[in-house]
Records
---
Amino acid sequence: MDVLITGLLLGGTYALIAMGLNLQYGMARIMNLANGEMLVTGGFVAFWFWTGSQISPLLTVFLVAPAAFALNWLIYVIFLGPLVKRARSRGQLEVDAILTTFGLSFVAVGLMLAFFGGDYFSYSYLSTPIHIFGDTYGANRVAAFLSAVLICGALWLWLARSRAGMTIRAISVAPDSARLVGIDVRRTAALAFALGGAVTATGGALISTFLTLDASTGVIFTLKALVIVIMGGVGDVRGTIVAALLLGLLETFVARMIDPGLTLAAAYLLFVVILLFRPQGLFGRPTT
Amino acid sequence: MKRRTFTRLAALVLAASVAGAPALAQEVLKIGAVAPKTGPLAGGAAVSYWPNVKLWINDVNARGGLKVGATTYKLEAIEYDDQTNPGETIKAVQRLVDQDKVKVVLPPYSTGLNLAAAPIYARYGLPMITSTATTDKANELSKQFPNVFITLGGAKPTVASVVETMVKLKERGDIGNKLAMVNVADAFGIELMGEAKPAFKEAGFELVYETSYPLGTQDLSPVMKAAKAATPDAFIAWSYPPDTFALTEQAIVEDLKVGAFFTAVATAFPAYAGRFGAGAEGVLGIGGVHADGDAFKEYAARHEQVTGAKPDYWASAMVYSSFQILEKSIEAVGSFDNAAIIKHVKENSFDTVIGPIKFDENNNNAAFWTVGQWQDGVFKGVASTGRDGAVEVKKKGAWQ
């Protein structure tokens, strides 16, 4: 039982890490390699507010999310918009975006070093035990999991039911045809990208309550997010959630039942197996 | 037209000489420093290494400058980021010597990067008084590279000290003989685990739980749950900074009841007490200093004043001490003759912020701190291989 719950909690963490990238890559078609840096920035802001004036990270989130949304909107308009405009094919856009955001990730690391310094930022928030079915779990992990459920649920509902969500799905499925039905593709893509950034930064603020971050840890999260997004299927919210939970459960199961040293091996084995049998990801659409 | 050009030129020369005059009065000596500012080890270097470069240069300049023969130099740092990549460390050292014409290069940061850079320092004949490298192979190293000095000790004496501390707690009846021990699957963790397992068995401990976890593991709750299920009397982790924090947090969450709780790197960081507050009380960790000594107190106060951050209670003071040794040797030799400087380092004893340092025939400083413990908000040295000022180790109480 405790393996199941620990695994679900870890899966929730992974969902928080990966959901933003899914929006950016799947919907806005920008393979954002600076995604992890956005997460670390969110974590730093939470750290700063908590150590500076004891403002709970659960409240900081409401400040982080709009700020990150605005920042990512600007990044999209200034750096990525021109790429989208001149790209002739999806492949070319992908290559250009990878190169640009790879560069941006270095800029972000440099800026963070200049502003925050290279020190670890770690603090204790809600590191109190919670008892569920007779076992103890960290309250901060449970809080992050609940937030993940809330964020992912809201996103899924919004994308599936609302008109704005539908336009985003439209540009994800068929960007060329979307224009024919009167959708402003570039504006909608900017919206999806900015939303992805906001979700990522929010996730960063939440997981900083139990993970130790520093200015250069971003790349670790980018890689993890990438693996999860590809496993789940690019551009599908359900896929990302399922893949994140699957990964969390598997890693915890291996750590408890076999050996903690094998968690990474098991995670990548799962990745390879999924790619072998469903190259488009669990929920992905087969490419034509 | 010609005359006007001449007057202009003359004015320019005059202006330049007036502006240049104060600079001529004191020469500037560039000091090269290479260490991670990005990459996996950047967090540690930002605590233990970079502030000391700033502090040392500030201190030397504050007392007038570095006196080499008849000239007194103002020091100025050239800092390069090696991205925690050994190849970059080597390139940066080459660049410092060949391109920037730097005469003094400080040692790099961490065991791996120091060992990787040892050959290039040796090729340039630079003295390399390492301060953040731990190795048991000082004798082999000094044979191959006589310019390399080791100050922070090795795995064997560190493990021996940890075992000794645990035996002391056991003999006092504070802990039983059931031990849970975990390590990060990385050169550091594997080496120390390899040393520690037989040493603890020999000392009569029973290993009730052992495991390793990959570097960068996000979630250590399975490890802590399993450790707790084995009901150990003492918990030891050969861990790196992020996992040191994560293991401690999980131990608090799980309420792991042990009489001794030991985590390795980063336990001595100010951020550890900053994060866990009273929860850090009684936690044992690798390192330590003579925290109540005047030399350290005075150093810590200056460190905070100049750099705005507190030093850690392990490597920080050693990093500064190694710079002091270099500084004193250059002044004593009175020139930048590296061979003479290395000879001077070998032959003399140095008074530093960590206490007196004298290298043995293997260029190894045999006296270093091995185990410390958080007591009343300060990480105090409880065991060393011949340093003064150790305090009595206490039993770990309940988590607060």
Note: Residues 2-121+132-277 of chain A form one domain.
---
Amino acid sequence: MIINHPLLGPRDAQEFTFLGDASLIDRPDWEAEDAAEKFYEYAYLRDNPAGLHRELWFHETGDRSWLVVTRNTLTHEITDVEMASDVARSKGRSK
Amino acid sequence: MSDNKQTNRLTGGQIDTSRSLRFSFDGKNYAGHPGDTLASALLANNVRLMGRSFKYHRPRGVLGSGSEEPNALVELRSGARQEPNTRATTAELFDGLEAKSQNRFPSLKFDAMAINDRFSNFLTAGFYYKTFMWPAAFWEKLYEPIIRKAAGLGSLSLQDDPDEYDKGFLHCDLLIIGGGPAGLAAALRAGRAGAQVILADEDYVFGGRLNAETHEIGGETGPAWTAAAMAELDAMPNVRCMARTSVLGAFDHGIYSAVERVSDHLAVPSKGKPRQILWRIYSKRALVCAGAIERPIAFENNDRPGIMLASAMRAYANRWAVTAAPRVAVFTNNDDGHRTAVDLLAKGVKVTAVIDTRADAPRIADCELLAGAQVIDTAGRLGLNYVKIQQADGSERTIECGALGVSGGWNPNVHMTCHQRGRPVWNDAIAAFVPGDTGTPGMSVAGAAQGDFSTASALQTGSDKAAAALHDLGIDAPTIELPQAEDTPVNLQPFWYVKHGKGRAWLDQQNDVTVKDVKLAHQENFRSVEHLKRYTTLGMATDQGKTSNMGGLAIMAELAGKSIPEVGTTMFRPPYTPVPMGTMGGRARGKHFHPVRETPSHKYSTENNATFVEVGNWLRAQWFTKPGETHWRETVDREVNAVRGSVGVCDVTTLGKIDIQGTDAAQFLNKVYANAFAKLAVGKTRYGLMLREDGIAMDDGTTARLAEDQFVMTTTTANAVNVYRHLEFVRQCLFPDMDVQLISTTEAWAQYAVAGPNSRKLLQKIVDPEFDISNEGFEFMACREITVCGGLRARLFRISFSGELAYEIAVPTRYGDALFRKIMEAGQEFDVVPYGTEALGVMRIEKGHAAGNELNGTTTALNLGMGRMVSKKKDSIGSTLSEREGLNEPDALMLVGFKPVNNADKVTAGGHLMTKGTPKDAEHDQGYITSAAFSPSLNSSIGLGFLKDGGNRLGEVMILTTPLTGADVEVEVVSAHFVDPEGERLRA
């Protein structure tokens, strides 16, 4: 597979390490009323879609960027690659 | 001198008869010519018998003339270069080639295992599954070795392969798979348009069937036109023509793998050249021009040497100037088969008859035509003598022939179009599967591979598809002039197998699968094609059923009362043809299998008789044996005593080091460590425990604050990579606006533990005098950037893993060797010793420090006795889920120490703890030992382990049971801190 790195262009997937569902960015608020339940869902519950899947890849032997890769699990077609930090910011994550 | 003359050699062909090549087969010497394959040269020498079948050891000859060959598998070469299971049809002849037949004993002509053939009634489909089922223990010891010996293929030399194999990477706009007329036309059009083109063909000459046919193309012979086309392509800098290169598989995103047989056609690779190269080709577009493969018709005893595909018979005559026998016949269901008769007649070979299953068969060749006839049996012990036929009127007669060309039509070579789950579709006009939706973006198909069988349509579709592919890329490829070529329509009446008699008709000749086996599979309800394949092993041999699968499908369809497309095909998977393991390995062999990381003290350690242990890729000194020491325990005990008695030094460079900088660095550490870090003072070091988000301990280590905005974190050796990855995840994905930067500095600093009561005195001789490292000036857990040896920058940490007064000192790696030697020299007066990982381990167990054995991916901070370290005042990774009820039961496992009641007994890691008097089973399990060692300090075996409610059970005597060895030992639960529980030594 080839991942089109937003900064570095097309790179072979062998340079990357796969983590999993990009929902791992959505870490719950520890002070929320239902924090225990939300963290349980965060840590253990994943969708397993047949089709488009947003997932985290780490450019371990490259520039060490975490990327959010949108991949079709049926065809391996990659339709979008974003910097994970940009995605995190867009979801309101900051410090 | 060769023993035989080339009695079956014809005139013409693409062989250089001015030169002779000597070769041997089963010890007998023969001669051939440059341009020959082993198969063509053997046929020229009137050798039809080339192998024995897999199961029944039936005598077999060549069926095909290329990589589709199921039968003629041979061992090539001898000694370390011996190479099993090579197809004689693709092995290029070279001078001195040694070849041996395989799967026969004692000889090819008399094979004792041919007795299997007599028992064929018992060896039918599913035989292995039915017979070798019970008892299970017999499989490994008895059945498998016998089966392997009896039904094996070639044998390995069992010596190291002396040749090199390489891997390479290529990029192109258009990858053209196959260099026949379609591929050549595509390459010419794309090449002239200036595109980056790779043209790959598995053969050693380009041209495909143009080499095997007599049709003119553009007024020239096929080979002559090909030579001109290749001359043009070779001269184009943007076209890379790769002969002897088999494209093996289509992968994601336009990536293809291919193997180039660089030196297989040479006795020994040229100096500096690899034997083979495994290529990874990154293509923007790919065009499959893989041609088609003829399929046989099944009939009784259709496997005798001399019976081959009609297309192969024609190729041998036209390309290699060889006939398998002086007298041949043809059996066909289509017009194309007749061309074999025409071509062989033209070469002066006697063609006794063309047997055509069609009652209305046209007369094409100038020989006897038996229309509406079928071959019902054959005869000849080790080679064909005659065929028995049933004529249209039902009468039977025999036809003399030493070779029979069989044609059941052609199958487009759809293999490559199915690797990405593409499924072929049925085309009634040619009664064959053609590529459907390939499921492979960027791939298109041209020529015979998509069912366009005439030369003219191959040229046209090759050219058109190349232009279309380039158009996608924005490259305009102008029309090229194509040569005049034959455009014969396909004229065929599907015919799969002769229904006559009770004898065996072979479908898969390599795996010995017959028409009967397919019927049996159907009868026993293995009716899906995938079941049929696995039950009968049809198509599972090294040829992957290239010539046999269609026959099996057709019969299954007939039995099931379905059409062939309803039955469908099995999956095609890479590789297209077998690849040697050595090629897959490439250069990753021996010491190149993985990189070795040497510590800065490696050279010193080697000089001082260290025994090394592999820790990931690292080689670490395990212990340093002194003269006279006869057992490693003796060495390790001495090292421990020396450290606890005076001073020792150990290389701890392998621990992961991560430099963390930025105004939010402290805040960041607060997130990744369960305990608090924000208020750590500059110049101080703190132990940190890192949790996974699920609350399980992930890693631990010390982190030093060198400045307000700079920390140096250490990780365990094993987790250095994972922790770094995790920290980057936290930084980029969870807290993207924190001002914090990370870099791994593991290899930038050589770091040594200097431990023991005399460690300060030793270091005072090395650390430059302006730095006060007295107990008051540099207290326990202090850290500082210092200089040593008169100005060399260094870092000093007062931390202790051994429990002694201890330091870790770091210098830039390039000074690591010098510093280690300097410490040893300065420490002479204190009898300093180098110590290895084993003594390090013994001392940390004596001190009760957790390590990898305790942070084993199932344990929490509470289990490790560090429950109170998890700060509840802040958010950190894992803090919320660590509070889950299930992880905080009152009887949770707690880390405690264990000592044998009887001093002579041993504590064994992995053993389980039982309350005295309870049954030894999982239900009554109380915990387990994680680490154990002999403690020279206590003169006893000791252990660390997790025990339910361990903190409240000190003093209890338990049974430590090790079912693996049957040993039961009484142990006492003690504090994990065996040595200096108050920590006075490390603060001294």
Note: The beta strands of chain A are 2-5, 9-12, 17-21, 52-58, 66-72, 78-83.
---
Amino acid sequence: MDGQAGSPWQQALDKVRDWARINSPWAIHYNSGSCNGCDIEIMATLTPRYDLERFGVKLQGSPRHADILIVTGPVTRLSRERLLRIYDQMPNPKFVIACGSCGLSGGAFRGCYNIVGDISEVIPVSVYIPGCPPRPEAIIYGVVQLLESLKRRNAPAVNLPRQEGAPA
Amino acid sequence: MNNLTVHPLIGLLLFPGGLFLLASGLLYEWIDRKLVARFQNRVGPRFIQPLADLVKLLAKEEISPEGVNKPLFFILPVVALAAALTAALYVPMAGFVPAGSFRGDLIITLYLLSVLTLCLGLAGANTISRFAIIGATRTLTQLFSYEAPFLLALLGPAIAAASWQITDVDFYAQQHLWMAVTQPIGFLVALVGLMGKLELPPFDSPEAETEIVAGAMTEYSGRGYALFRLGKNIELVIGLTLVATFYLGGLANPVQFLIKTLGLLVVLAALQSLFARLRIDQTVGLWWRVGALLALAQLLVLFLLR
């Protein structure tokens, strides 16, 4: 995953890896304190009407199997630890999508006594999807933007080294 | 009527072992997912989807969680895949003569197919994740419930052919009326037993996503998960081949193989999208109260009519 583009063999391998990564984005969904509006829209996105399995998107239950963490809502003080834990449990390379106005900025809850802030204050975010709540089309557009940036190899890669003592 | 033969080395590396099996496993997974999607009025995944999933998982980081026995954690997926691949040597894949064949290879094949499930159960019990442990318990419970009826159902044709060698049963099936017609109960039990073996809905309580995350597979990431998935796909192909050989008049050539296994797969996909998940106690009850008794009744009729 570190791109030392050297031998043609290495380049070909990288190409195969990128192709597979773009064509098989598995997602996990976490609600870090949202009002459930965005969650309902995410559920609607996964229904047969929009059928994301066409593009290889699958909702996974376990963070160990997922590539993309879709987070909704502002981060509350209670859910901060959980969010960090889920993020640490995901294998590299991993990407985060912040979904909804609250995830972008804290939204209506910004400044509340129980809110840490927006998602990017806790974990690195690759793509922001605005809207309150965003429509399923907007969510699909956001995922496509992430995959496009993967294709261009300039996704804000978040391959941070695993922290010492983090739950592995 | 005669099956074709292949050189042993080719049999091991290319066909029917190795590459052919991997490719057909991925192909059958795609067909299964596509059919279920079409039954649910969706478009469904693209042709290359299982391959993309596999390559992506292989290229991902593999985390070994805290509290596991590391050698066991890494060796289990390999053993599971190897067992599934080995089982393919004794069944008439694509209508060819099996690469290896001896008296009693039916039992060996069935046990090799169970090794994958055993590995799954061990893999779940190896971690300290509660979801994985519950998943492992359910996997093994289900193993004990479907295994006996499935074996009894496959014994029916073997007894009719008076041989426990898969090739003999294949030849017998080719020369007689389809055993799905003469032994309909056994066919039903074998088909549903195959669904239980592969943990397809409605027998997917061991990996029930809504209750226990991903069951025994919860802690596996990257390579290990990819190998387990691949093993399961191969088991799907082998299971379909076995049932088609025994109950659908044998497999004489690749065309018959394709038509019969794909026909069975359509039925499996329809059943998958038709039924909701059973609880684990319902699964066990169904197998022991209905499945085993039906299979035994079938055997009894067979003995009496011989």
Note: The interface with chain B takes residues 1, 16-17, 19-21, 23-24, 48, 51, 53-54, 56, 60-62, 64-65, 67, 89, 91-93, 167-168 of chain A (CB under 8 Å).
